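User: I'm putting together a teaching handout on how multi-component assemblies are represented. Below are the sequence lines for each component of a complex, exactly as they appear in our records. Could you produce the 3D structure of the whole assembly as structure tokens, so the students can see both representations side by side? Please keep the chain order the same as the input.
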Amino acid sequence: MICDECGRPATIRFVETVNGEMRLMRLCGECAAARGIGLSFAPLAGPLVNMLMGFLEEVGAQDSVEVPEPACSECGLPYDEFRRTGKLGCAVCYTSFEKELRPLIRRINGSTRHTGRIPTSAPDDVESIREVRRLKVDLERAVRGEEYERAAELRDRIRDLESKRSEGGDDGDV
Amino acid sequence: MGTFEQMLATQPGWLDASGPISNVVLSTRVRLARNLKGVPFPMRADNADLERVRDRTLAAASASNYLSDALVLIMDESSQSKREILVERHLTGREFLRDSPGRAVVIGDRELVSAVINEEDHLRLACLRSGLEPMDAWRLVDRLDTELERNLHYSYSSDWGYLTSCPTNVGTGMRVSVLMHLVGLVRSNRIAQVLGSISKLGLSVRGFYGERSAALGGFFQVSNQMTLGQSEDDIAYMVERVAGQLVTLELEARSELTEKGGRKIEDEVHRAHGILTSARIISPDEMMVLCSSLRFGITEGLIDSVDLATANGLLVSTQPGHLKHFNGRDPGPERRDRMRADLIRRELASGSSA
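Assistant: Of course. Below is the structure of the complete assembly, with chains in the same order as your input.
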């Protein structure tokens, strides 16, 4: 069983009801947690930042392998300040604090890869990213229309394109 | 667009109840967070940086079709009461009440498109629509973004997408918010359960003017939590779908209330209307409760002497900052309550197209 979100081994199976339609989902523990499955959410919980900060505390508490970079190499933002305010100082902070940010962003979004709009000035990769985006919209439609064979086909094409992208790109989704 | 005073004299286009499902959905807002390449985010930028960002963005806005005629407000030159009005009209966040260099707002026709400069991010573009219109609002703000992009280079990574000051916005930088009037679900005590379940679908809920307004009148803003991993189309579509579900539940709750409540509900709605058209002192809290009942009465066909746009308008025009501005200076809370009652009577006397 493979996670529908990230393609890693899935451990949780559940049925999601959207608009009265049932849909079977398979997720790994992390993606399930990111979607709030198995967690209880207060309906009017405080700002997202609280959740985010709580999570950062958790990560901090593990205190396992590496001590976080003390500050951003570009703008000098101390990591502690980000923990306090929830705000980053500049674009390079995303690289400086990548190890800390990646699990956090996955937890919020269930993903760590942008599949949306691309600036017109962005050079490479653009076409394959756009293609994936189109395919995902088609996939959604296929699932809603209960065309499962077509949905499976589309899913495979999306995975294919996405794996090609990550091979050429960074260190991937770990 | 003209002056600040002209803007105030016109109702924001997103409150005019002309859009789809206006009986439950007041408006839809889509905003995009953007930052300029090579400049620290506003919190860590120095004054010279902030002013450069402002000037470059204003130049790009005036070269665009959507914002070339827009009203430009430089915050350093804007009074506190003007700033409060911007917050109450949902044009800026509360953060803009504080002094900080390089801040500006660009406001398009009828406040349907806007650009906020140097708030949490260098640039926040917003498009608002009356009723439930996430797709439409997204397409419009996307066109504006594309226009601005010709003159602005954004901070972007192919992995993370658009880079934002807060990692909760990274990726698309997109937040779709639907402003809903869920009075039926509140009254039938189903609201907590319903909102609890939508948080599991990746949406978050806030009050229109903070949590209190939601508790008082049943005005909620429902928005997407995730900004990365899905395309903008998907996000807009997801919010539309879930909001649509909420609309169905709300309409069921309303017709149940009207059927079961009968004369009692009718009486309550007309009492609210009676107080609004007659009272001489109305507090902000009371206003929220009464306005909620009035809207409910209009949508259920119990009141036909007031139209929805007028009822919607009261939610904004009776806010403290607006009353202060009309008075020239802050009259204090007690006198504001009197001004509020006067304003409501005037609006309701003239406010009907029926």
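A couple of points students might notice: The longest strand of chain A covers residues 12-18. Residues 38-47, 56-65, 168-174 of chain A have pLDDT under 50 and may be disordered.
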